[in-house]
Q: What sequence folds into this?
């Protein structure tokens, strides 16, 4: 972008992903991860794992604390799923496409 922040581009099957970061407006510091996904044929089920930690604390429907250190907040009305796997708590976000597009904002702060 004009501030020379990188945006990563990759594909998952038929889904094109743009994955970038911008500074958080949170006074405590942090960043917002912005994901933009696009496809001609939306998969029936697609998730992104945004955390795999030893301790996951749910603060509210869209806010979590990871390993007592990092605060994570979800934008766009996104609801996460939590599952246990290999001794870790994983935070998964279902990707919901509308007209072949989906966006996610995930704020990390400390």
A:
């Amino acid at each position: 972008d004009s501030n020379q922040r990188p945006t990563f581009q990759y594909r998952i099957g038929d889904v094109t992903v743009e994955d970038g970061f911008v500074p958080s407006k949170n006074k405590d510091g942090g960043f917002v991860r912005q994901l933009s996904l696009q496809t001609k044929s939306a998969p029936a089920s697609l998730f992104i794992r945004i955390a795999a930690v030893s301790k996951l604390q749910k603060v509210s429907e869209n806010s979590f604390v990871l390993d007592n250190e990092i605060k994570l907040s979800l934008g766009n009305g996104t609801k996460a799923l939590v599952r246990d796997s290999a001794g870790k708590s994983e935070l998964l976000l279902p990707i919901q496409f509308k007209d072949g597009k989906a966006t996610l904002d995930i704020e990390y702060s400390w």
